[in-house]
Amino acid sequence: MTITADGGSPAVGTPRSKRGGGFDPTSLRRQSPRHGERVVMGVLIAAALLSVLVTVGIVLSLLLPAISFFREVSFGEFLFGTRWSPRFSGQESYGVLPLITGTAWTTLIALVIAIPFGLGAAIYLSEYAPSRVRKVLKPVLEVLAGIPSVVYGFFALTFVAPVILNDLLGLDVGTFSVLSAGLVLGIMIIPTVASLSEDAMSAVPDALRHGSMALGANKMRTTLRVVFPAAVSGIAASIVLALSRAVGETMIVALAAGTQARMVGGPTEVGQTMTGFIAQTATGESTPGTLSYNTLFAVGLLLFVITFVINMISIRLVRKFREAY
């Protein structure tokens, strides 16, 4: 039995806070409801539900008209047809492969530009640039991400195609081509690759760098053999995110790639992408509810599925190669 300071014993069942004026944290009870906390929790739940509802709404808005489209056009004709002319009266054809090839060419060219330049910028900013230079270059690099895509489109149309490709390089390229669209699209997504990759490389602990250099490795070997593999999950995520943005970009390809939907066999050819077709048709005179109008939603649904698959691949790559420190 516990003896009090005056030699007596406390009454059985009496809380300590009442016996000697002490504070017993285990005896705390909520004295009044926390209405503010409930309001904040409700707002957070509503925000989470809103994102889910918006996603569901997007899927339904694409799915319902697409179902009407596929009642008249088979999946095989849509996915594997090589002629796309949904608005030619009497000669309608609904093969989406020409739009897919145009999208593939512009995306491939963009990645060829963005990956090496973006990773090079990330390596320099993370491993070599002095702090003063980094504070200047990184914001300047990220300014590119804030330029409206329509400005990039006019840049490709008025400068890249006539001046760089025709005059400087001597290529036989017209005003519109998937090459000029892909080059400018690659410039636009460089900040995505560079910024996210630089963040991933900067998050690698310095202990790994110091250990590598203690074993005799130089700066370049440490960067390529230690830092780069340790940050590979973030780098892979940046590339896949840039890929998703390139696939979904509209204004650059709508202005610079052209409006002729045909099978694209080379980078100097004119082609139309899926987003370019959507932009062109959505501002046209198609009557809602008609088959030609529903092609918008069929192509949009295909684009949604492609970007969804790309994002799922990104998530799996991040989980597979994630490093824990």
Automatic annotation (TrEMBL):
It is a multi-pass membrane protein. NCBIfam families: phosphate_pstC. Residues 100-314 form the ABC transmembrane type-1 domain. One of its GO terms (molecular function) is phosphate transmembrane transporter activity. It is found in: Cell membrane; Membrane. This is Phosphate transport system permease protein. It holds the Pfam family BPD_transp_1. SUPFAM superfamilies: MetI-like. The chain crosses the membrane at residues 39-64, 104-128, 140-164, 176-196, 223-243, 296-318. One of its GO terms (cellular component) is plasma membrane. Residues 1-34 are annotated as: Disordered. Belongs to the binding-protein-dependent transport system permease family. CysTW subfamily. The keyword rRNA processing does not apply. Part of the binding-protein-dependent transport system for phosphate; probably responsible for the translocation of the substrate across the membrane. Keywords: Cell membrane, Membrane, Phosphate transport, Transmembrane, Transmembrane helix, Transport.
